[in-house]
Predict the structure.
Amino acid sequence: MPPGDALPTGQILTRRFPVVGERAPPGDAPGAEEWTLHIHGLVRAPVTLSLPELLALPQAERTVDIHCVTGWSKRAVRLVGIPLSRLFDDLHLMPSARFVRFVARSERDHDTSLPLSVALADTWLVHTIDGESLTPAHGGPLRTVTPSRYFYKSLKWVSRIEVMAEDRLGYWERESAYHNTADPTRGDQRYRTGSLDPARLARFLAAGDYARWRGPKRLILSADLRAWRPVTRELGELHLKDCDLRGVVLAGADLRGANLTRCDLRGADLRGVDLRDADLEGVVFVGADLRGADLRGAFLSAARFFDEGAGARVDGLRLEGADGLLEGQEAWLLSRLDSV
């Protein structure tokens, strides 16, 4: 999508560059001078390039818009690096090559894949953004950026590129049911589908204990949970992504470490809820009652506490150490709280 076009549906514009995903490569990852990129698979001969060797190649600059699946968009980001197509010019791909897989040096072995045609048309290897070398938190010393896809298709700390005949789902697509195409101009390509059939949904809604539902391997995706009235307040580590939680009563609940990415909590009763260290990226809190709630250490990029004509009740809300608030939401909260 050319820079400056209308924002995709569900996105909020920001001048900031929120940090998403892991914050740093593993402690034993090499520094920039020792960083290497290995290209293998369906190529005539594998190649390994050091970062200094990559930087010695002709560099290019490009201005793009970035769209994160959590709901924020950043305009006119200036990239400096190397188009993947230029790097592939001399590799002599085999006729069966159809997909490209990018692999990171990360604690969770992050990876992602793209059709070869998309990668050659749009993916760059990037070391500088907006005139500054990439920090480790943003993927430095080397990352990929594919602006025509949601940002989870752009990989931090890229160390390996594999050319393949068959596709292989990446980390977020495997673990969190993110859509494998990830086109932000299509409103239905954030997640694959809902993850609960009616019988399992009924069991979840009626559960007296949620121990078996905890953790990322028990992800509940795009479910209608408006009828949820949990009898227990012990709800920590639940992973409820893109769920409809409008009007639910969770006052006093312990949701520490939960993942509620892109959930709709409009009008919910969240008085005194404990959401410390929770992933609340893209959550809609408009009209919710958050009085006395604890969001310390939470991740809040693209979270919305107000929109035109409506806002959450935030008296006594705690936000120390929370990360990622976009500037408009932060200003609104600052006007109502002693500190943010």
Q: What stands out?
A: The chain has six helices and 15 strands. The chain has two domains: 12-175, 193-340.
